Structures are given as C-alpha cells and as structure tokens.
Automatic annotation (TrEMBL):
Protein name: TRAP transporter large permease protein
A Pfam family recorded for this sequence: DctM
Quaternary context: The complex comprises the extracytoplasmic solute receptor protein and the two transmembrane proteins.
Family note: Belongs to the TRAP transporter large permease family.
Organism from which the protein derives: Palleronia salina
Domain TRAP C4-dicarboxylate transport system permease DctM subunit per the UniProt entry, residue ranges: 8-418
C-alpha cells in the first residue's frame, strides 16, 4: 500500500493535477481497494470537521496581511532601506535580499509570498548591477523559506492544528532557529563572495544621514511584528485574533503611506482568496487521505516497519529525517506536512521526543524541500520573476543554502534546546 500511495502521488502530480484533487483521488482509491468500509459515505462530515476550526481562520488573515504589504509598496521600501544598511558586506545586495526576506517573514507567514515579494523587487537590481544570477537568485529562494519558520507561520499553524500543539509555543520555538538560519545564509554568502568576489557584485556604502533616514521605512514591519507577536504572548489575543489585528494595522500603515487604492484592495483580496482556497483544499484533501490510510492500517504498517529496524530514538529520528528529505524532492511542502504528520508525529512522540521540537525540525526539512528540485516551489517562483535565463541557475545557486539547512537539522538533533529554550523560559 505504501508503494501504491507513493507511485500514485508522483504519477498524478506529473499530470499537473492540483495537489488537493490528487489527495482526494488517492483517498478514494485506497477506500475502494484497501479498506473494508464504505468511507465515502462519511466524506461530507469529514470535510466539514476538518475545516471547521477557529485556528484555521488565521490562515486567510496572514495571507491578506502579506498581500497588503506587497501591493501597497511597503515591502519595496523595506528592501531599499535594508540595502542602505548591509550592502557594504561582501556580496552586496544579496544580503538585502536575505534581510528583507527575514523581515517580511515576520509578518507574512508564507514562504512563497516572501520569495515572490523579494524576487519582484530585487531582480531588476541584479540585472542592472551585474550580479551573478546563480547566487543572487538562489539567495532569494533560500531567504523566502524563512516565511514558514519565523513567526507568524502558516505552516506552524497547520502543524499545531493537526497535532493539537500550542501554536504560541511553536512560534516561540521557531524564532531562534529562523534568525540563526538568516544569519547563516548571510555568513555563507560572505564566505562565498570572499573566495569569489566576482559572484557578489559591487559593495555599496551610503552616507550616515541616508542610512538613518532609511530606518523610518523599517518601522512599519517592526511595528506589525511587535503587535502580532506581542498580543499573542501577552495573552491579549489568540493567533487568529492577532492576525486580524495585523491586517488592520497593515491597512492603516498602507493608507498612511498612500498605498491604498481600489486596484490594490481588489488584487489583495483576490490573491488572498486564491491562496487560501489552495491551502484549504490541500488540508481537507489530506485529512480525507489520512482517514483512509488510517482505516487501511498504514499507520500500523509504518510503525511496524520502524520498530522492525530495531533502532533507538536517535536512529529512528535519522530515518524520519531521511524520509522527509527524499519525499521533499517530489511532494509539495504543505501536502507533505499534512499527509505525514498524523502518521509520523505519534511515532516520534512515542520515542520520547518533544512535539514542539519535532515541529521545528520538520519545518527546516520542509524549507529544504522548497529549494530542491524537481518540485521546489520557491525555485519556480524566483525563476518566474527572472523571466530570462535557465532554471538550472536558480537550482545551483540554492545549493549552498541547502547545505546550511542540513547543518541546522543536525544542530537541532544534537542540541534540542535551540528550539526549546525560548518556550521554556517564556
């Protein structure tokens, strides 16, 4: 049955069928051939129960928040401000890409939205200033992955919903690894450009007065982050309520900056509906597939497989990491999460691992999947923004950052407190 699911999933995805529909098709197939019960009779109730959650309401709010920031020009101003502060480093403007992605991640919650935003703003600069297209585009794709690690994160919300884990605790746990990844991306870029200065383009310095004035353009993003995260950890709002406050704040800032008009509002709402619909279709389809897989006994089979290996906790987690790395090459990241979480997380927790820690480890592996071919979404987003050149350039440029993510995974396994320290003290 495991082979059937894997082959069926890959085969249907190669036909360019939407992921959510693929999950329903697989679920129906498993129901017909592997389960003795007519599960389709309960499909309506399953669809309702899997989507009827106040927690999931946070998703469209965070998506709308990101859409407002992009379409009102706030993201572009943030990029220009960070360019003035850190383009003196070897690598120049590449660091502004990573820093902007980091700040935008602190409000948008979506990796794809973060990558699209930074790529749209940065690519014209790369062509004008003569940067190496590989490293420049690879850094944008990698920086965009921080959108699902640095809170607020849509993927962490989905993980918390599926595992009944505290979302505020997950947000706290993702903060240090997310910032550490951003700094590591900058460090590896510096090292590469010190060895090969021709890859980084020219470094740029700006007068102190300009740099200080540019700080004003960073205030909106920092203010939104403080409001969203602060209201959650002060206990004034749930993540869903904080997301709605963030939308109101983003709209007020956009209005004050003159970025609000009818087209901006229409495009923001349309984009939110499209992205939210895609996410919810995947969540509902995966819930149905997980239900059929559970009824067919796949969870017991997988548990028996891992137990049959005779591995201890460390060996088990290494096998799980390897499974996610391999599946990440072929399966869209949100689908990978919602399909595997109900099966893998109970096995991991049974080995004595903390579910919050494992959630952060999983997110690092999911981030890696976003920039590894053939299904790495961020690679396609950045290539779409380039509108020229080979897709291979983006893939090769992302390789150093994949290595960084592998190292972060190893560090999280060796030192779980990297993720657990902040939730424990707060």
């Amino acid at each position: 049955m495991i082979a059937y699911v894997s082959i069926g999933l890959l085969g249907l995805l190669t036909l360019s069928i939407p992921v959510g529909i693929v999950l329903f098709i697989l679920g129906i197939g498993i129901d017909q051939f592997f389960t003795p019960f007519p599960l389709l009779r309960g499909l309506g109730n399953l669809v309702w129960s899997s989507s009827n959650s106040a927690t999931l309401i946070a998703i469209p709010f965070f998506v709308l928040l990101g859409e407002i920031l992009v379409r009102s020009g706030i993201a572009e101003r943030t990029y220009a401000a960070l360019d003035k502060w850190i383009s003196w480093l070897p690598g120049g403007l590449i660091h502004a890409n990573i820093a902007t992605a980091t700040m935008f991640s602190a409000t948008s919650g979506s990796s794809v939205a973060t990558s699209a935003t930074v790529a749209t703003v940065a690519m014209p600069q790369a062509e004008r200033l003569g940067y190496d297209p590989k490293l420049f585009s690879g850094a944008i794709a990698a920086g965009g992955t921080l959108g699902i690690m640095i809170p607020p994160s849509i993927n962490l919300i989905v993980y918390g919903f599926l595992t009944q884990t505290s979302i505020p605790q997950l947000f706290l746990a993702g903060l240090i690894p997310g910032i550490a990844l951003a700094l590591a991306f900058i460090l590896v870029t510096v090292l590469i450009c010190m060895v090969r200065p021709d890859l980084g383009g020219e470094t740029r310095s700006f007068p102190l007065g300009k740099m200080i004035r540019a700080l004003l353009d960073l205030v909106p993003i920092l203010l939104l982050f403080a409001v969203i995260i602060g209201t959650i950890y002060k206990g004034w709002a749930t993540p869903t309520e904080a997301a709605s406050v963030g939308v109101a704040g983003a709209f007020a800032i956009a209005l004050a900056m003159g970025g609000v008009n009818l087209r901006m509002m229409r495009d923001s709402l349309t984009g939110t509906v499209k992205i939210t619909s895609m996410i919810m279709l995947v969540v509902i389809g995966a819930s149905f597939l997980n239900f059929t897989l559970s009824s067919a006994g796949l969870g017991a089979q997988l548990r028996g497989f891992l137990e049959g290996l005779g591995l201890g906790p460390l060996g088990t987690i290494l096998v799980v990491v390897l499974i996610y790395i391999v599946l990440g090459f072929f399966i869209e990241t949100l689908s990978l999460m919602v399909v595997t979480i109900p099966i893998i997380v109970p096995l991991v927790v049974a080995q004595g691992f903390d579910p919050i820690w494992f959630g952060i480890l999983m997110i690092v592996l999911i981030e890696m999947a976003l920039i590894t071919p053939p299904v790495g979404l961020n690679l396609y987003v950045v290539q779409g923004a380039r509108r020229s050149g080979s897709m291979t350039d983006v893939m090769l440029g992302a390789v150093p950052f994949v290595v960084v993510m592998l190292l972060m995974s190893a560090l999280l396994i060796a030192f779980p407190q990297i993720a657990l320290w902040l939730p424990s003290v707060l």
